[in-house]
Specification:
Elements (H helix, E strand, L loop, with lengths): L10 E4 L12 H6 L6 H8 L2 H7 L5 H12 L5 H12 L6 H10 L3 E6 L3 H10 L2 H4 L2 E4 H4 L6 H11 L6 E5 L2 H9 L4 E4 L3 H10 L5
Parallel strand pairs: 1-2, 1-4, 2-3, 4-5
Helix pairs in contact: 2-4
């Protein structure tokens, strides 16, 4: 493996949503186009304990949307909300997949740790080649916990056979990054866009 560029980082752990593909960020604005319910009410209903339970595999997609509709009093059917969500998931975050391919070509070991649901991931796999990009893939619904719990990172590191101190974690959520640091992943990057990610990787001598 080519590690002359960086003698410490050998492994890179990626988030999926809003890093590689579009996720739920700003989806409340898409939903609001089809209803009179205010954006802030939709946003509150979408997130919180029910989303976490959905990502932990405790709710089906239908059950999740039913709770969202009840809380926000959204006058839309389940099928419409499911369609709005999937249209967003089809889209790439520009440039990230190209960076991942460069890292893979340089010999870095790559893994994916994503808070996501079974139904949504089945759709995403039909439209994105994520299984070709990563040697190890861990989804929250499979392990029953999200990245808000340290055990999710312990499971991911163990399954991928990654040493924490030699692992770089890339995620758009500062909360997730904080948890990763607690389990010994000292090198992290909060994702904003692929340009800033590439600049960071170059500065760290991971990409040259």
């Amino acid at each position: 493996m080519s590690t002359k560029q960086n003698n410490q980082i050998k492994y890179i752990l990626f988030d999926l949503a809003d890093v590689i593909i579009e996720g739920l960020i700003k989806i409340e604005f898409e939903i609001a186009k089809f209803t009179d319910v205010p954006v802030d009410i939709i946003s509150k209903a979408l997130r919180g304990p029910k989303l976490r339970e959905y990502f932990e595999g405790k709710l089906s997609e239908f059950e999740y949307w039913r709770l969202v509709i009840e809380e926000a009093k959204i006058d839309l059917p389940f099928e419409k909300l499911a369609d709005i969500t999937r249209k967003k998931f089809k889209k790439d975050m520009p440039g990230t997949k190209d960076i991942i391919k460069k890292l893979k070509n340089k010999g870095y070991k790559l893994a994916l740790l994503s808070d996501h649901s079974k139904e949504w991931i089945e759709f995403i796999k039909e439209h994105h080649e994520i299984e070709e990009l990563f040697e190890t893939i861990i989804f929250s619904y499979e392990i029953g916990s999200t990245k808000l719990e340290e055990k999710s990172f312990h499971k991911a590191l163990l399954e991928a056979n990654f040493e924490p101190k030699q692992t770089l974690f890339i995620d758009d959520s500062l909360k997730n990054i904080t948890i990763a640091q607690k389990v010994g992943i000292t090198k992290t990057h909060q994702f904003y866009d692929s340009k800033k990610l590439e600049e960071f990787l170059i500065a760290q001598k991971i990409l040259l």
